[in-house]
């Protein structure tokens, strides 16, 4: 038996439920490590390890390492890896599954700003139905403490009218709120 | 008499004309005293171009022709035929190579290239000046072939020749035919049962009226040349009259001696009187003289007592027979990488580390475990199996530098077969690269990975050791740099294919060359892949290099076809540019005899001077340079011709 692998249930059951593990391993076993995904990934340089290695690590069974890494949070879900993959392995979907689990189980890594960004973004959507840049930036600055980053860029955007002071109303605001209230089946 | 020479310069489209100034060449060459006619044309190899040559020979009464064109390897034969249509002896035609040796290599130096072309042509003019009309050498041809080795390659070749109507003798040193393929369980990529494919062929070979099958026999000595080989074959003592024997098997049942079975790679036992397997052809036993109690200690004789037809004959002696053949196919197959070099992987120390061929026997329905994957050490089912590829292959320092070609595929096959027999088991494969070139091969490997959940790790293993009753394999997945540790029940090594240990000995007997490892060397890697460096001797199968079954079958068919081509003529014709001896100068020192690589020279016992066997001579010129008296010369390539040619190149 291989040690510390996907077969080693004691570690992984806590981290990732069997059903999701099955879904992931079924998808990634096709991978023949061509690295086409990493070579096309725009954020591979920031990820720590790119999508190819991520898949490979999952394949050799070290899910814990992946789920605690910053890689899954840096991914911008641009779907480039998915569309380049010769076997159509849906890597962004796998990363989404991992993010979801990491968030709900509270085992995510230390990449606080990235996660915070995601949280504020979702809060904003929930509140206004679509993104309201001004309030988003305000909350982000307040919580992250990065008061002075990108100030020049912000000023330029403001002059061009890209940062409206009041949020735009959307037609189906109620539906969006409903969407957030819908309980997903617990994984 | 002064010769009238015609020079024909080919443009070769733009290949030559673009670099060489053809007008200048023709103008210069025209003025040479020996040249009676000079002309260029776009494509002399075309039908129209050949007609121009034929007409020019007749019109200008030429008695020597130079075609300045591509390499003689391309079209020498074409132009020689054209020249003979013009009524001239074909050996009065010479090719001046101004494409490969001039225009292609001097694309950037056009002026110099033109000068070089003129020199090449004028040097050839010197040769043609002294060329003499020659006649192709003909010799007798025995239309009977010898096939050495009766694996799938030898059997296929023998059948292909025999089905064309020529008699074949098939010599096999084992007691039965079939070779390695008979040992295999299933074959990739279709998972056909190997036995089911090969057994009908084995029966066909043994029953074919044109095939004379000699099992338990070895080639002892070979002499002669293409069309007329004399071969001595040693029929080993089987101690059983195999003509009388009915193959009832009673003697095998009663024999008290048990030894490791070679056919089962040592995983099962056989008796001292044995047939290799239940499906063996011919299914008649032989006695292993090393282990038989009567032959070693003088007691027992049980087999003789139980044999009702008295076929057992302890006094049988080996017999030497002499046969004549026109052509020979070497299909001696391969060996596995030697066991004693596998100590690194624990082979030999741990019973549960086995080779690929042993795993093949475990898998086989007729094998020692009846097809169940059981551990050799304790007979328990194997739940985790590690396969390791490239054992001995692609390892220039410690093993063989070449790729054994079939290991990637048979490992994939093993893993898939294992998973089908043990669905709850896990198969791991350590590999360096996966080489799955071939029809349906890549898909087969991917099928193993996707459908059978075989886990592939890119990287070699670092250590294999036994702990409790498990084999612990340490390795690394180089894609993640993660250390891998597996507690396996069984480890299977994909060992390299190596030449037969006596391949070089046989090569010496047959006077063919081998490469540095002992695989037989082909006459040309691409254009003549089944022909040896000696005319009339061909290869099929792994004797020439590692290959899989489809490749082996095609090569065997190709070799058989070459022999059929040869046998379709009435006589053997060979190039007349051979050595000859000036009898007034030769003093019979014999240096040419030792210098000749083709056994074409000998000392005439009556005249005490050297003579040439023209059918064997390849015109290499080794004897010419060895002869201290300058008595040896090559026809149409005499010393004088060569020196005059060199003079013109200065």
Could you name the key traits of this structure?
heterodimer, A: 187 residues, mainly alpha, Fumarate Reductase Iron-sulfur Protein, Chain B, domain 2, 2 domains, globular, B: 650 residues, Rossmann fold, FAD/NAD(P)-binding domain, 5 domains
Give an overview of the whole structure.
The complex is a heterodimer of chains A (187) and B (650). Chain A folds into 2 domains: 97 residues, Fumarate Reductase Iron-sulfur Protein, Chain B, domain 2 (Orthogonal Bundle); 70 residues, no CATH class. In chain A, 60% of the residues lie in helices and 0% in strands. Chain A starts with 8 loop residues before the first helix and ends in a 6-residue tail after the last helix. Chain B contains 18 helices and 34 strands. The longest helix of chain B has 20 residues. The model of chain B has no long low-confidence stretch (mean pLDDT 93). Classes of the chains: A mainly alpha (187), B alpha/beta (650). At the A-B interface, helix 5 of A face helix 13, strand 23 and strand 26 of B.
